[in-house]
Amino acid sequence: MDGYINIKVRVWRQAGPKAQGHFETYELKNIFQGASFLEMIDILNEQLIAEHKAPIAFDHDCREGICGMCSMYVNGHPHGPDSAITTCQLHMRKFHDGETITVEPWRSRAFPVIKDLMVDRLAYDKIMQAGGFVSVNTGGVPDANAIPIPKPKADEAMDAASCIGCGACAAACKNGSAMLFVAAKVSQLALLPQGKIEAKQRAKNMLAKMDELGFGNCTNTGACAAECPKQVSLAHIARLNREFLAAKFSD
Amino acid sequence: MAIKDEIKKVVKKAADKIDEAVEQAAKEANVITPKMAKIPEGPLEKKWTNYKDHQKLVNPANKRRLDIIVVGTGLAGASAAATLAELGFNVLNFCIQDSPRRAHSIAAQGGINAAKNYQNDGDSVYRLYYDTIKGGDYRAREANVYRLAEVSNNIIDQCVAQGVPFAREYGGLLDNRSFGGAQVSRTFYAKGQTGQQLLLGAYSALSRQIGKGKVKMYNRHEMLDIVMIKDENGEERARGIIARNLVTGRIERFFGHAVVVASGGYGNTFFLSTNAMASNGSAAMQMYRHGAYFANPCYAQIHPTCIPKHGDFQSKLTLMSESLRNDGRIWVPKKLEDAKRLQAGEIKGRDIPEEDRDYYLERRYPAFGNLVPRDVASRAAKERCDKGYGVNNTGLAVFLDFSDAIQRLGKDVVAQKYGNLFQMYEKIVDENPYENPMMIFPAIHYTMGGIWVDYELQTSVKGLFCIGEANFSDHGANRLGASALMQGLADGYFVLPYTIQNYLSDQIGVPRMSTDLPEFAEAEKRVQEKIDRLMKIQGKRSVDSIHKELGLIMWDFVGMGRTAESLKTAIEKIDAIKKEFWTNVYIPGEAASLNNELEKALRLADFIEIGRLMAIDALNREESCGGHFREEYQTEEGEALRQDDKFSYVACWKYTGEDSEPELIKEPLDYEFTERKTRNYKA
Fold first, then answer.
1. Cβ–Cβ below 8 Å for B204 and A65
2. Beta strands at B438-447 and B251-255: parallel, antiparallel or unpaired
3. Share of residues in chain B with pLDDT > 90 (%)
4. CATH 1.10.1060.10: which residues of chain A?
5. Does this model's pTM top 0.80?
6. Which of B160, B318, B493 is opposite residue A138, by nearest beta carbon?
7. CB A97 within 8 A of CB A192
8. CATH 3.10.20.30 in chain A, residues?
9. CA atoms within 13 A on the CB side of A220
10. Per-residue pLDDT averaged across A158-177, rounded?
């Protein structure tokens, strides 16, 4: 049964992109364990506002694990100690009375801090703009059932497509690589006949953009997949590598 | 012959004069005629084709010279921005999140409807049209709904071409499921993440255009006003927006030959809803203050299957997809003493034997059973809980049970169909829904009301368009499941990119305007003054504390069951909240920097006005229809009782000033092609 706990929260505070950051510790009493982690931050912010202190800036929106906006490093893990969830789906029942919880922003070269726990993930949009699409305009496309797609392939494409673009993979990676993010999109579209046509070019363009934006390279440590809230599999990185190599050979 | 021609001429002249007189009289009587709403002539199934055949277009060379502002990047906004850019227009696209991919369309779970009839179960464009009109309780425009059903099939084709991984059968063809209010399987889906996949499809099309430089994307920007500029005839036209850069706090100016708003619904007026935290109605209120009518604000959808509220600190409610009602059965105990023991936590749902369970939807509505439309299912849950049969500690929950489905199909099949939803439920509630029935309760989910638009999706302000959930157009008084995604994408991919050209075709001579014009400066000044006024209050209460208070009033007095008395109480209480807000809110920090509390305060100022407008509209509408239930107007069996002779109209509210009451303008809904019936889901 969910009870009430007293906790300390050690939060990274940073006034702006160029400001020096530091940890600040806050005490919170009687937090219901049925509350979500972000609701706990809400309560903390209400407390700070009541004391006329600056509330903690953090990204969040849908609060049901799908928009990919929340981006906290909790006790050393992107999206916290539970598996297969985003921070907004983390609940206080995962913490015990008297615990000190450390909260940090994503720490990755390609995601500069904007303020406190908020980072700039524009780099992911730019990678998508480099090739994360099928080049079709609206209208003039064939009937949806014109090309049958084997169910296992469609299902695997769906698994890859479930990426929410939160950035946990790059934040978890010691090289700061965005390989899992890129692989999810390349793999999804390469698995489907509609995306197959541009598969090689897409792999090349998206990887080139990833390198250009300051993400590191992949050394197969697997931290990305372990921390991915949507459990996107490492197998997609293998498929990306195949597409990339094939592209290089055909050059 | 000559005489005949002469007579024809005279008759035509006279007929035109009568038409003119009718339009003039209608205008004076505050009535909107089909002509003013630009509904095309001809039979229902020919209207959209007729329109497209005769509308004006803009040629490719001229498209390059026109700038279009699109506010919002949800299904409607992203699909419109991408398609307009593909056509050759220059698009400026705005979103409040850090990326266009985060718009709240992403959270839609269950699916998208289309009249493909792939299942050979008797579906057709007409049937989809009819179900939608009926589902909306005959309070939507026939021509719009028919067009929606018509283009629904193109949407599925388009999404598949983009690489949207819809669910498929083993033979490789697309799979379908059923949703509420339909007797066919016409819903396409991608696991329980259909909204996400459709939005990512639109986002990929948008990303392609951003990469090409045809769309200029402004992330973390919030529109705060619309800039109106008079043309050579003295008529005001929307020519730009004022937006706040949410990172720097700077107020910025943007010009466009036309402005398209796709800012979603205003469900967060209730504080607790299934909407995202930043979803808001401020863009709608900015349009309203510039003369765009706010239509049917009281039509809000209360979704029957949400996870019940668990505490005062709660920030939002989580939806459990309607698709669950395909296989889940809704029930409460038959015996009050069982309900009491559930409420006390002494027993669990699985402890109650089959014969003591009341599957009240199957009992009351044998023909549709658990798949009745949302408004009906929500009210039925409220009815049981009001009578004391609620199943959790607050008494505000009913069971959604999968034990039958698990027995029939096996746990694996159920997991494959609904696994991610079950996981989501377990993470939030800490209980395994495979073993014990889920608990659910209705919550605010969607707003059918919104800014009034004509058939071209243009508001009553020239050059200002409104698409997606933000407009009022297609769902009447109640939206069917899996139809929001359909409408958002229909508007953005297949309707607006056509209709906006009919407006822009005579704007090709209008040069790009400088944002240094006095109209831009004045609009910016108005925004700055409002912000300064808010920052200066320095009262004692946080924005959220006031918003929560507003939400409770909305839920208690403008919620699932409304009465004249409750609505009058609501208006009084909302006025008091408005006063409290403008004298006692506290916003920390500075305006010219990242300031989340200021963002929330600006939105709350508008939610207060929307809440009031909803109450006024609900008070005016003395009937029950769809999501709007006035307790004074119900049948003996407790079903909604419409008053077609008095309220078969769209209630359009016109802004008349900060401290004066809005003016009511009516668009009569004459059902020319469809016979209106009392909705019956029983037989």
1. no
2. unpaired
3. 89
4. 122-250
5. yes
6. B493
7. no
8. 4-115
9. 6
10. 97
- Helix B543-557 × helix A37-50 angle, to 10°: 120
CB B250 within 8 A of CB B234: no
Cβ neighbors of B341 (< 8 A, separation 6 or more) are B347
Residue of A13, A48, A61 to mutate, testing the B interface (most B Cβ within 10 Å of its Cβ): A61
What would the pLDDT profile of B273-306 be if each residue is shown by its tens digit?
Answer: 999 999 999 999 999 999 999 999 999 999 999 9
CA atoms of B565 and B631, how far apart (whole Å) = 11
CATH architecture of the domain formed by B304-444: Alpha-Beta Complex (3.90)
Q: Cβ(B367)–Cβ(B182) under 8 Å?
A: no
Which class is B518-667 in CATH? mainly alpha
CA–CA separation, B431 and B322 (whole Å): 20
- Measured in whole angstroms, the distance separating CA B517 from the mean position of its chain's CA atoms is 35
Query: In this predicted structure, what is the pLDDT of residue B681?
Result: 82
Domain ranges, ordered by start, for chain B: 1-25, 304-444, 518-667
pLDDT above 90: percentage of residues in chain A: 97
Burial of B105 (0-12, 13-18, 19+ CB in 10 A): buried
Distance from CA of B538 to the nearest CA of A (A): 10
Reading the block at residue B141, the tokens are 């425009």
Which amino acid belongs to residue B171?
A: G
- Residues of B in Cβ contact (< 8 Å) with A114: 247, 594
Angle between helices B518-537 and B596-620 (to 10 degrees): 100
pLDDT band at B182 (very low <50, low <70, confident <90, very high): confident
* Active site residue ranges of B: 374
Superfamily of domain A4-115: Beta-grasp domain (3.10.20.30)
Task: Tell which of B86, B97, B99, B222 to mutate to test the A interface (max A CBs under 10 Å).
Answer: B99
Establish if A241 touches chain B: CB-CB under 8 angstroms.
no
The complex scores an ipTM of 0.98
State mean pLDDT over A236-242: 95
For residue A234, pLDDT beyond 90:
yes
Integer CA distances (angstroms), B622 to B154, B397, B614, B648, B676, in order: 39, 29, 14, 11, 18
pLDDT at residue B27 greater than cutoff 90: no
How confident is the prediction for chain A on average, in pLDDT? 96
Burial of B676 (0-12, 13-18, 19+ CB in 10 A): middle
CATH superfamily of A122-250: Alpha-helical ferredoxin (1.10.1060.10)
Q: At what angle do helices A199-212 and A179-191 cross, to 10 degrees?
A: 170
User: Rounded CA gap, B91 and B324, in Å?
Assistant: 39
**pLDDT tens for residues B414-461?**
998 888 889 889 989 999 999 999 999 999 999 999 999 999 999 999
- The pLDDT score that the predictor gives to residue B1 is 61
- The angle subtended at Cα B144 by Cα B142 and Cα B146, nearest 5°, is 70
SS3 of residue B185 by DSSP: coil
- What is the model's pLDDT at position B119? 96
The pLDDT of residue B291 is 97
B83 contacts in chain A (CB < 8 Å): 137-138
Q: In 3D, which of A188, A178, A234, A180 has the Cα closest to residue A209?
A: A178
